[in-house]
Amino acid sequence: MVEALLRIENISKRFGGLRAVDEVSFDVMPGRITALIGPNGAGKTTLFSIVSGFLRPDDGRIIYGGIDVTGEPPHRLARRGIARTFQIVQPFAGLTVRENIAVGCHLSRRHRADALAAAGDIARAIDLGAQLERPAAALTVAGRKRLELARALAIGPKLLLLDEVLAGLNPSEIRDIVPAIRDIARRGVTILMVEHVMQAVMSLAAHVFVLAEGRIIAEGSPQQVAADRRVIEAYLGHGAASRMTAGAGHG
Amino acid sequence: MKAYLPIAVAVALFAAVPFLTASNVVLNFLVMALLIALAGQGWNLLGGYGGQYSFGHAAFFGTGAYVTAILQVRYGVNAWLGLVIGVAAGALVGAAIGALSFRSGLKGSYFSLVTLAFAEVLRITASVAPITGAGVGTLIKLDLRPEAFQFQSRAPFYWIALGLVGASLIVVRAIERSRFGAYLVAVRENENAAKALGVDVFMVKLGAMTISAAITAAAGCFYAQYFLFLDAAIAYGPWISIDALLAPIVGGAGMLFGPLIGALVIKTLGEATKLVTGGAPGLDLVIYGVVLVAVVGLAPRGIAGLLSGWTPRQFRPGSSADQNHG
User: Which member of B192, B197, B312 has the closest CB to residue A155?
Assistant: First the structure.
């Protein structure tokens, strides 16, 4: 039995009267891509912020690599090997692409020259090589998403949290970036991704958890989850699943 | 070493001035400009590179000045040793104010206002505390010996001011090229992104504030030796907080030579205004205000930014930076 890399135990987070995350538990197994899906407002980003240390949970524990890391600040989690991207991209806008990535490279490299050189290698691997000396503010949306990815990789993560890296991209841009994500996983980085683009989830994820109204309502392979009545209802409203089957029967 | 060449060239050029002119007016003007450049370089490290805009660098300038003066006057400590202790005391005050404000998570204008408040508290305290001479001020005894950090002519003072500016340039350039410098700029650009990449934002800000305060305190120590007189309004007054932030912003915040260029420009403007208006009080401040508005509006990266021909503004139209920040 393989030990989970990340174990989320009974995590709860309230904002005033709203239970954004309500006693959520699940495991992320090492070496594969796990997806977390769910309708808008399900609590996915809140959960991400808790795992990456930006928010403190009201209850529950985060176990990473067998260690309780609940409530540790983001920079310490990053040093433990947890990297994240942001749903709303957060570039260092005034810096070049190379300088952006080098900030991450500095985690394991003291010298400026080493960090800048390593940043070049990472950028090339993620198809940003041609943009290295351009300011991050000059990148296209797709370029910024790649930069988020490259910067997260720069810290040499064991666990990579991807918060909607495909959101806002057009289908051809998605086609271009999906292989890059698969490549990262193939190199042994465990990935937990929040994603709305189902086509990408279906092709990338080995295991899917569905979050709705702060609770996990289903899990399984992408195919199992997509066929699950509770998942369909969570996305399309109560009774949607039965109406669909009834509709299919009449048609 | 190539990175340090411009510093060597600039210092060498300035060092030659006393051989070209013996005019005390010129040297006095340049000493004041260098003093502001030094205080401004301190501000530049924290504000220009780190994005933490202090309105109260007088707190560090005044601490440096008073510690140097009081150690000599009351405890008979050598002036050079006083300089070293003054710089250390400034750093300590910087670390204390930094720890308090950054630990409470103060950012942006809240941080600016708190630094202003600290400087004002120190000014008011110094204006009543017996140890600073309260309203009478502190007079350092005339003792024109190099051992006492006092000189017959202006030239040695000028070279010492230049040496301090040169040292501050080397320190800041070294930081620019270090991991700490990269982290500091990352904190300025985006704190959350920096945290996610393993940057301890609190420690980086605190480190920057401490070094920043030490540099500005050195300017205060020098001021005390140069004028041999201090009172609360001089040491902790808003004038130095303003000059220390105006010089780098006009010259180019976050750029190595910004404070030096800015100090020369604003001191020139200040003197020119005095000549034209016959020294009407406050008019130089009006000119400063106009210059500040012009720089922020037309050249946000300052004069050095204009010279280097690159402003981030050029890249903004057509990009989606602004939408994403909304």
Answer: B197
Chain A residues whose beta carbon lies within 8 Å of the beta carbon of residue B192 = 54, 74, 86, 90
Give the best residue of A50, A77, A106 to mutate against chain B (max B CB count within 10 A).
A106
For B230, the enclosing helix (H) or strand (E) is: strand B229-230
Cβ distance of B195 and A54 shorter than 8 Å: yes
> If you measure CA to CA, which chain B residue comes closest to A73?
B195
Structure confidence at residue B291 (pLDDT): 85
Instruction: Give mean pLDDT, residues A98-102.
Output: 97
Distance from CA of B11 to the nearest CA of A (A): 26
Residue B195 contacts A where some CB pair is shorter than 8 Å: yes
Q: B170 versus B2: which is more confidently predicted?
A: B170
pLDDT-based confidence at B272, cuts 50/70/90? confident
CB proximity B177 to A under 8 Å: yes
Inter-chain contact A106–B324, Cβ cutoff 8 Å?
no
Q: How confident is the model at residue A250 (pLDDT cuts 50, 70, 90)?
A: low
Q: What would the pLDDT profile of A204-238 be if each residue is shown by its tens digit? A: 999 999 999 899 999 999 999 888 888 888 887 77
A137–B186 CB contact, under 8 Å: no
How do residues A89-98 score in pLDDT, each as one tens digit? Answer: 999 999 999 9
ipTM given for this complex: 0.90
**pLDDT one-digit tens code per residue, A77-90:** 999 999 999 999 99
**From residue B206, how far is each of A31, B79, B101, B177, B197 by CA, in Å?**
38, 29, 10, 19, 18
Q: At the topology level of CATH, where does A6-90+158-221 sit? A: Rossmann fold (3.40.50)
Q: Does B105 touch chain A (CB under 8 A)?
A: no
What is the per-residue pLDDT across B180-193, written as a single tens digit (0 to 9) for each?
999 999 999 999 99
From the list B190, B195, B198, the residue facing A107 with the nearest CB is: B198
Percent of chain A at pLDDT exceeding 70: 98
Where are the domains positioned within chain A? 6-90+158-221, 92-138
Helix (H, G, I), strand (E, B) or coil at B30: helix
Q: Which residue does chain A place closest to B318, by CA atoms?
A: A138
pLDDT for the residue B311: 45
Cβ contact (<8 Å) for A94 and B193? no
Q: Which of B112, B122, B60, B131 is nearest to B91 (CA)?
A: B60
- Interface check B146 vs A, CB under 8 A: no
